[in-house]
Amino acid sequence: MSERDPAMSRALRDFCAQAPFIPIHIHLTDGRVMDVIHPDFLFLTHSGNLLTIFDPRNSIHTINVGRIVSVSRVAENAESSQPA
């Protein structure tokens, strides 16, 4: 089954196009969080419905973009987890 989420595809492209790149967390519907530490480790298909992530352990993950709940910068998560 192919799910399209044009807004999420656009957000992923925007995160990866930023210079300098800031590592991101990709939060999935099953509760997993995928880390992307460099834009070369992420590939989004032209149609925008499939995402491939190469993780630091040399594993490859192919994800339907419709299964992504949110994307955040690693630095944002670190700041939000510190007490105010």
CATH architectural group = Roll
CATH topology call: SH3 type barrels
- Major sheet details: 3 strands, antiparallel
Rg, Cα atoms, Å:
13 Å
* Cα separation of the termini: 43 Å
Helix content: 10-25%
- Helix count equals 2
Q: Provide the succession of SSEs.
A: HEEEEEEH
Mean pLDDT: 85
> What percent strand?
25-35%
Spatial strand arrangement across the major sheet = 2-1-6
Number of domains: 1
Total beta strand runs:
6
* CATH class category: Mainly Beta
Q: Unreliable stretches, pLDDT < 50, 5 or more residues?
A: 79-84
Give the overall form. Answer: globular
Brief sketch in words of this structure:
The chain has a single domain (6-76), classed as Roll (SH3 type barrels). The chain is 23% helix and 33% strand.
Describe this structure in words.
Strands 2-1-6 form a three-stranded antiparallel beta sheet. By secondary structure, the protein is α+β, with helices and mostly antiparallel strands. The N and C termini lie far apart (43 Å). It is built from two helices and six strands.
Write a concise keyword list for the protein shown above:
84 residues; alpha+beta; SH3 type barrels; three-stranded antiparallel beta sheet; 23% helix; disordered C terminus
Topology record:
Elements: H1 6-17, E1 24-28, E2 33-36, E3 42-44, E4 50-54, E5 60-64, E6 68-73, H2 74-80
Antiparallel strand pairs: 1-2, 1-6, 3-4, 4-5
